[in-house]
């Protein structure tokens, strides 16, 4: 046997094995490094754009889908992630609570914005959700800028971005409505801007944010852009193609002052003076176009998305709400408004592509509430629906109070479908608060128009997990809410007989779109349940920042890469 050759062979084999092992180890280490990069726990887009469409039902995505272009809603749906079973998990479903809940990741039970307006039982008067007389208007001599987000008791995802970046990440809020700009922008925003109409037609802010308007806003206000929308409102496409809505002139639609019917075209210049001048623009698709114009101007004016530190732009398109209230969810006006909005979204996304970069920004789109079909229309289709006779209910309830307690003063206020009691009178009459609540609840249930009536004691003592009780409890704030909560029957509303409204815990008011798109977002869809408070923690998880401090929602893991 040749031991020399055998030894050489063994040595050679050993060296080969060692080399292979070293290479494998290096490859393994490289794979781990690459894997670490790929599965990083967060991404940092240059810009996050949060879009809220006021009064948008989920089915507007599907009803009008064939009429949309490829670059707006369809782009978000087909290239992003679509949460098809997304709902508000509280009531009342109004604009103020909606915007607050989207950005705080929680419900009115925690953030405290229980309505657009509510009776404040601490100071014994009604308050507006963003009104704040301690600050002054900037950009107008009117009091339209005396607002701030102080009624919101918790932080927003925009606040958390500011805190995380040592205030270097910029946050700008934009909407026609002040509450649609202020509540999303949060407590620490660089600025929030909203449109002051009437005879001024300009974008304004509050001294809460700054003491003057920046040059880009002054230039925009001086550009005549708002005045350019003082033009007739006709359909974007042939009205014959609007087959996903009802007849053009019908009894279910409202009319502007001075109009003889509700059909197209709407002569905005002729209706100008009688309908609030620049405020009239808000009730047409042009209000959304003006909002998109201003948002695009903000990208340049504020240098948003221009560096590696993430900025946040919040945009609320409010005209859809005005149009829905006027004409109803089945109107040709609503269909046309969404086709206009689709074009404005495409314009905004294209600008983001150009200025921030394709794949360098993240967008989410949702709504602050949806809307009910016009009950008079539903009744004509033999669907159970109706209206409340507020005067008759008030008279009947007053008689009950006087007969039962000897005074009507035991009730201090009735608003937002809530009854507020006077605790001093309850005590002076030697009554138990629980008993009074239950007696009043039973009285309202006897009127035949209410599906459910809840007491504050029920809200405090129970932990509801599903259905209407769960939704009402999430809207109940012990410091601010009333003592008895009223829930009308489905499709019953306290409103006029034309146009749509909202506010209930039913699916037609809670089911809204939720689309994610761009950097850090998967392409796909889900029909798994998601809720509005899930949005803020999803964005926070993507950015790798702290959740808003009142968060009760959870990140939607299917959305994130």
TrEMBL record:
**One example GO MF annotation:** alkaline phosphatase activity
For this UniProt record, give its keywords in alphabetical order, as a comma-separated list: Metal-binding, Phosphoprotein, Signal
Please give the InterPro entries that the UniProt record associates with this protein. Alkaline_phosphatase_core_sf (IPR017850), Alkaline_phosphatase_prok (IPR026263), Phosphodiest/P_Trfase (IPR002591)
Report if keyword Signal is assigned.
Answer: yes
Question: What positions does the entry give for substrate binding?
Answer: 116, 177-179
Task: Report the SUPFAM superfamilies cross-referenced here.
Answer: Alkaline phosphatase-like
Domain of life of the source = Bacteria
Q: Which CDD domains match?
A: AP-SPAP (cd16016)
Is the keyword Metal-binding in the record? yes
Active site located where? Answer: 95 (phosphothreonine intermediate)
Q: Which Pfam families match?
A: Phosphodiest
The signal peptide, as residue positions, is 1-24
Q: Which Gene3D superfamilies match?
A: 3.30.1360.150, Alkaline Phosphatase, subunit A
NCBIfam families in the cross-refs? alk_phos_PafA
Record-given protein name = Type I phosphodiesterase / nucleotide pyrophosphatase
Q: Which organism is it from?
A: Cellulophaga baltica
């Amino acid at each position: 046997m040749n031991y020399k050759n055998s030894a050489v062979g063994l040595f050679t084999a050993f060296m080969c094995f060692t080399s292979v092992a070293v290479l494998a180890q290096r490859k393994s280490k490289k794979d781990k490094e690459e894997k670490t990069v790929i599965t990083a726990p967060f991404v940092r887009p240059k810009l996050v754009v949060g879009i809220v469409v006021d009064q948008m039902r989920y089915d507007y995505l599907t009803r009008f889908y064939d009429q949309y272009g490829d670059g707006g809603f369809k782009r978000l749906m087909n290239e992003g992630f679509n949460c098809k079973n997304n709902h508000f998990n509280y009531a009342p479903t109004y604009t103020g609570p909606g915007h607050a809940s989207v950005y705080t990741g929680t419900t009115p039970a925690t953030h405290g914005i229980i309505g657009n307006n509510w009776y404040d039982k601490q100071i014994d008067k009604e308050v507006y959700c963003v009104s704040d007389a301690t600050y002054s208007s900037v950009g107008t001599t009117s009091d339209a800028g005396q607002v701030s987000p102080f009624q919101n008791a918790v932080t927003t995802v925009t606040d958390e971005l500011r805190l995380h970046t040592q205030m270097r990440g910029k946050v700008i809020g934009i909407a026609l409505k002040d509450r649609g700009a202020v509540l999303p922008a949060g407590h620490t925003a660089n600025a929030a801007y909203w449109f002051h109409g009437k005879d001024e037609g300009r974008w304004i802010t509050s001294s809460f944010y700054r003491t003057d308007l920046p040059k880009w806003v002054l230039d925009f206000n001086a550009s005549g852009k708002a005045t350019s929308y003082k033009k007739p409102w006709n359909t974007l496409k042939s009205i014959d193609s609007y087959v996903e809505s009802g007849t053009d002139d019908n009894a279910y639609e409202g009319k502007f002052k001075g109009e003889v019917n509700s059909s197209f075209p709407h002569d905005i210049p002729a209706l100008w003076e009688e309908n609030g001048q620049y405020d009239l623009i808000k009730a047409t698709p042009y209000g959304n176009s003006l909002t998109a114009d201003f948002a695009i101007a903000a990208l340049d004016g504020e240098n948003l998305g221009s560096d590696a530190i993430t900025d946040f732009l919040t945009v609320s398109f409010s005209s859809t709400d005005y149009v829905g209230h006027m004409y109803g969810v089945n109107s040709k006006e609503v269909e046309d408004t969404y086709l206009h909005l689709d074009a404005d979204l495409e314009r905004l996304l294209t600008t983001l592509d150009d200025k921030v970069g394709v794949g360098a920004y993240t967008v989410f789109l949702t709504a602050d509430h949806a809307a009910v079909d016009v009950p008079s229309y539903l009744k004509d289709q033999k669907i159970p629906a109706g209206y409340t006779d507020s005067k008759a209910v008030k008279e009947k309830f007053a008689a009950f109070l006087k007969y039962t307690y000897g005074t009507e003063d035991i009730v201090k206020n009735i608003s937002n479908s809530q009854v507020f009691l006077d605790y001093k009178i309850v005590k002076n009459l030697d009554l138990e608060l629980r008993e009074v609540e239950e007696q009043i609840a039973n009285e309202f249930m006897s009127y035949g128009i209410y599906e459910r009536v809840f007491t504050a004691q029920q809200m405090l003592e129970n932990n509801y997990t599903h259905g209407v009780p769960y939704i009402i409890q999430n809207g109940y704030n012990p410091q601010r809410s009333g003592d008895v909560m009223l829930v009308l029957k489905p499709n019953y509303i306290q409103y006029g007989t034309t146009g749509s409204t909202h506010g209930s815990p039913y699916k037609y008011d809670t089911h809204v779109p939720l689309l994610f798109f761009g950097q850090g977002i998967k392409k796909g869809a889900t029909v798994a349940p998601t809720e509005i408070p899930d949005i803020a923690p999803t964005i926070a998880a993507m950015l790798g920042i702290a959740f808003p401090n009142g968060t009760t929602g959870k990140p939607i893991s299917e959305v994130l890469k």
